[in-house]
Amino acid sequence: MTTPRYKRFLLAVLAWAIALIIFFPILWMALTGFKTEAAAIADPSFVFSPTLESYVAVHARADYLKFALNSVVVAFGSTLLALLIAIPSAYSMAFLPTPRTKGTLLWMLSTKMLPPVGVLMPIYLLFRDTGLLDTLTGLIIVYTLMNLPIVVWMLYTFFKDLPRDILEAGRMDGASTLQEVRHLLLPLTLPGIASTGLLAVILSWNESFWSLNLTSSDAAPLTAYIASFSSPEGLFWAKLSAASTMAIAPILVFGWLTQKQMVRGLTFGAVK
Amino acid sequence: MRLHHTLPVVGAMTFASLSASAETITVATVNNNDMVIMQSLTDAFEKAHPDITLDWVVLEENVLRQRMTTDIATNGGQFDVMTIGTYEVPIWAERDWLVPLNDLPEEYQVDDLLTSVRDGLSQDGTLHALPFYGESSMMYYRKDLFEQAGIEVPKQPTWEEVRDWAGQLHRPGEETYGICLRGKPGWGENMALVSTMVNTFGGRWFDMEWNPQLDSKAWQEAVSFYVDLLNEYGPPGASSNGFNENLALFSRGNCAMWVDATSAAGKLYGADESQVADKLGFASAPIAETPKGSHWLWSWALAIPASSDSKAAAKEFITWATSQEYVELVGEQKGWTSVPPGTRESTYANENYQQAAPFADFVLEAMKSADPTDSTLEPSPYTGVQFVGIPEFQSIGTQVGQMVAAALTGERTVEQALQAAQRSTERTVQRAGYLD
Q1: What's A38's domain CATH number?
Q2: Which domain holds residue A204?
Q3: pTM of the predicted model, to two decimals?
C-alpha cells in the first residue's frame, strides 16, 4: 500500500513546520548575537545591520576556550566513566537477573526523581572535606552519578534485545565472560552503546545546577560561562545570545555529525 | 571508538586542575555594568599589586546569592571577595561570616563614604563590607510629553498627581503608556517598589511585636493604588516587567513615567542605548501620606568571607575597588557617567562628574535622605527601607511579591491577595520564633 501523494505532501509540510518551530528559538538566539544591545531590545525584526560587537565584548570578558575545554573534559570524562560502570551492571542485569533486578532498576531510576537541590548541602560538605570543590574530578564524579541510572537503563534495554543464543554459542566455544562481552556483546550492541554515550555527553554538556554550585573559576564549564552574561540590571540580551551561541555551537556540531548513529541507536531493536 | 586513548588525557587535565597558585584571589560578583567595568580594570589593579592576581566568578544575581550563601554557610572557602547587598551584610556579620573592616588605612578616607550607606553596611558600628555602588529610587519622565500636555512636574510629586498625569499621557494606540513600574514578583523586584509605596501610604511590614501588618488599611490602599494605576495606565503584561524590561521600555520611549533605581540615570543618559537621552526629566520618588520611606536605599558592597585564605590580599583589592582613586580611574578611562555612583561625597564634589551627570545632586540628596532605621510612619522593629533586615525576609518578600503579582493579573482581588500574604507571613514569623 502506498501513501497518497497529497498525504505525503501534507506530512512533509507538517514535518517542516514542526522542525522550524523547534529550531526557531535557536535561530533567533544566533541572530540576536549579531545585533547591538539597542537592536536586541527593539521590536523584533529580521532586518538589521549585523555587528560583531557582542562577540568582541564577550571575548574580552571571559576566556571561552578555558570554559569550553572544561566542558569537553567533564562531558566526555563522565560519559566514559558512566559507561565503564554501566556496561558490567547492565550485562549482569540483562543476562544474569535475580529476583531483585527489577526492583534495583526501578530504585536507580527513582533517584532521578529527587530534586537535586535536596542533596546540595550534603554533597557540598562532602566535596569541601575531600577538596573536590571547583575541580574537574569532582564534576566528573557528580555527572557520572547523575547519568548512571539512565545509562544503565538504556544499556539494559539494548542488551536484553540481544538473542541469548549468540552469547550461549560463544560460551559453547569456550569464551570467558570477559571475552564474551568484548567480542560478542559490545560489537553487536555498539549502536546502542554509542547512542547512550552521545545522550550522556549531551546531558552533561547542558547540566547547569551542579556546575554552577560546585565550581567557581578553575573547573567552571560553559554553563557557568553563559550564566555570567545574564544580569538583573542593564541590557545584556545581545551579549548573552552571543555567549549562548558559542556555548552550544560545539554540541550542535557534535549532534549534527553523530545524528545517524544517534537515530540508529535509539531505534535499535525497535523492529523485531 | 578508542576510548582508552582519551583516559590519560582526561586524567592529566584533571590533575592539572587541582593545582592552584598561591596569591590568587577569587572575586564573586554580579553582571551589572559597574561590575563589568571593575572586571575590565583588572590589569590596572594587578599592575599596582604585582603579587596579587584576580580570578573572577561573574553570575546572575539570584544564582550568585544562592552560590555564595551555600559557600559561606558551609565555610567552603571558595571565594575571597563576595559582592553582597545591604540586606545580607548585617545578617551575615552577626553570624561572624564576614571579616570586620575596622582598621582601614587612612588614605582610604572612610569618612568620605556616605553616612547612610556606611550605616547600612555596619554591624554594631563596625563596617563589614565596603560600598561599591549605591542607589536610591526616583521618578523619570519624558519632558517632551509633559511639555506638550502643559504639565509642570514639581521636585517632589505625589502619587495622586502621578495618577492624574498617567491618565493624561496614556496613549496605548501609539505604544506610549502612562507609567511603567515593576510588576515581576520577587523581594528585590516588585516588592522593592511596593514596600516604598506602603511606607509612604503610612504602612509597615510589622508592628513592634512582630505582628504582620499586611491586612492593614495602609497596605490595602497602597496595593490597590499600585494595581489600579498599572492596570489602567501601564504597559501590557506589566506583571512580567522588572528593572531591565522597564529600562528597555523607557529607553525606547514607551513610557511617560517610570519610578525606579537612581542607577538607571547613567544608562538613560547614554545616547547609544537610549532614545530618550535628550528628553529625560527626573523628580523625587512620589509620596503620599508621609515622605518617610518613599525611596529606597540599596548598596552593592564588597566583603571578605571569614573562610577566605587570602584575607590580606582580598582587603587590598576591596579597598582599591571602592576608593576615590578607583572612581577617578573609571572617570578618566571609561567616562564620568560610568563611575560607580552613590558611595562617596567626593564623587559628587567632583566637577567632571557634576558636568557629565546632571542628576548627580538629585541622587545624592535621595541617598542621604533615605533612612533605613526610620522608614515608616508608625514605629517598626526592623531596619531597611524596601526590605526587612531579617533572614526570613527573602522568603516572605518573594511570597508576598507573588500574591501582589496575582492581584495585578486579576487572578485574585487585592483583599484576597493581602489576606493570603498576611497568613503566610504570620506562619513564617511564627515558625522563626518572632511571634509566640
Answers
A1: 1.10.3720.10
A2: 16-266
A3: 0.83
